């Protein structure tokens, strides 16, 4: 009896050690990519100055990364389910870190863009597996808390990125951002090799759907590339081609016994389908808010970049505070109630922004706090619902699908804003002479985002239960 008790205690200690190690590495990896993404925005002028790059090329510094991430997320999620999530996660961390290091020593803008593509590929491997490994290790009664901490780390990266990016660029140069990211990635690699020995591959032995992956990747590329070209006619051509490709992909996958994306999860799993729809709507309605407000505060209100960053910090800080609490609550309370409440609060914040012209700075900051609370309350429970709604063998696919919804939502949000700005002020830079048109375009954008998010409330509530 004493010996058995000792073995049980050792088993619990070993399990506890694995869970804490997985959560630590997941938190580091979840921090990395949003930190770099938000920090690099502060360095774009310096990069443009060094390489004599125009605004279009600088735009591709961000877009090339998003494109690569979106195209590879689902295929790498499927590969992780087949060959092992730890293997794919480790390879992703290695690719991401090496690409970050090489970016710092780019001899030209096109080499830098190529490195950004590889960064996006590594990021896809990390995001497609990190949350899947957390879901594999933590039991359902602890899963929401772990996911909450992981998502809070994403928001911490978004919050700290602009501050750190500004300091690093000003005192050490833009290259220091990528070197810092590479060093953090190296720490994650070391921890992963030293502290995690297990492997998770519930779909081992199943074939990989290469043709489906190619159709999916090309279709998604056309869609996101089309969004980046709007409102030019070529943008609509790529959008139509991408939509046609996705229709072909759906027919192809429904006839494949081992598809790269389990479309049956959308057709037969209400929780999975509506939770992903809710995620897409939420990101579509919120991602471009910071972009619009950054232009508004600097061009219309004449705030400095530093002060603008401090004001906009209110939203991600409250996201980071609320997310772990919401995730922990979702282990005991149905995620749809928490996520729907978060979507409703976000809708209220977007509705208030429609009246930004008559809004003082204290009210704007309170509105940003409201948005941060709403998004934090939505995101962790929604992620918990998605990952808890599928069998273990589909964790990688579920994680990759959720990441794809995030990226598509982000691009759709920016596409809406760029289309509205083009209709109101054309290709002209924002200035005093067209400030009135810019303010009208802001109101239209926030109005559309409010309507979108309002309908998202019903999509969120319609998902059904995960707790029995």
**CATH homologous group name of the largest domain:** MFS general substrate transporter like domains
Q: Would you tell me the overall average pLDDT?
A: 84
Structural class: mainly alpha
Separation, N- and C-terminal Cα atoms: 35 Å
Beta-strand residue percentage: under 5%
Number of domains: 3
Taking all Cα atoms into account, the compactness measure Rg is 22 Å
The first-level CATH class name of the largest domain: Mainly Alpha
**Approximate shape:** globular
Major beta sheet, specifics?
A: none
Uncertain stretches: 1-13
Please give a quick description of this structure:
The chain has 468 residues and is mainly α. The protein contains 17 helices and no strands. It has three domains: 207 residues, MFS general substrate transporter like domains (Growth Hormone, Chain: A, Up-down Bundle), CATH 1.20.1250; 51 residues; 204 residues, MFS general substrate transporter like domains (Growth Hormone, Chain: A, Up-down Bundle), CATH 1.20.1250.20.
Describe what this molecule looks like in 3D.
The protein is an all-alpha fold and 468 residues long. The protein folds into 3 domains: 1-207, MFS general substrate transporter like domains (Growth Hormone, Chain: A); 209-259; 265-468, Growth Hormone, Chain: A (Up-down Bundle). 82% of the residues lie in helices and 0% in strands. The chain is built from 17 helices and no strands. Helix 2 (55-83) packs parallel to helix 4 (109-137), helix 3 packs antiparallel against helix 6 and helix 16 packs antiparallel against helix 17. The radius of gyration is 22 Å and the shape is globular.
